[in-house]
Amino acid sequence: MDGVVGGGTWPKLIVTVRQGDNGDAVKALQVQLNARGANLSVDGAFGAGTDSSVRGFQQSAGLSPVDGIVGPATWSALLSGGGGGTGGGTGDVLSQSQAASLLSSAGITWSSSGNCSNRNSSSCTSFDGLRRASADGAVALKHAVGGCGLTITGGTETGHAAGTYSHANGYKLDFAMVSCLTSHITGNFAYSGIRGDGAALYTAPSGNVYANEGNHWDVTFTG
Description:
Layout (H helix, E strand, L loop, with lengths): L9 H4 L10 H12 L12 H14 L10 H9 L15 H10 L3 E2 L21 H14 L5 E4 L17 E5 L2 H10 L1 E5 L5 E4 L5 E4 L3 E5 L3
């Protein structure tokens, strides 16, 4: 498996694959995703990590639906160089290093129980595949709270709830619960009810939604 798409590889590639599938087409898919910033084992097993990377690529490439199913349109975008990858740093999607640089330059820190940034591990805090609008929103929040320290505790890594406006698709970041951040949110943003899981919601004028999940603020950046 060398990732080179030659005459013998094409017939194996242009088949639809999805989570649960195995084989050479999945290996070729994993090679292509890794070339765009993913960190997958090229084992031919289409598991949750490959699914997450596919969805990130589909989002960045403007494909619809973002469903994790690799059919002709997704193969075409992958092999033609279309889209921004799973976090490859073009367009509206950032790589881990790009997002980390942007956030750290604004004075934002991050932490994880595993002290890691692997998108495919739930114990890490990853920015791989984070939307540029989400990173910009975090920076704007930091500027608004001034000297209040912001620490991100959740990013695009696996383990969060699914959905269009999800962590995996780069729309959400979790921030550690500190009193100065809470005061800013509750004092400046409109209370907008209770989410189904009991989290109190506040909506900023920008449309960003802040959910109080007890030990952290779950923020959806809709810009």
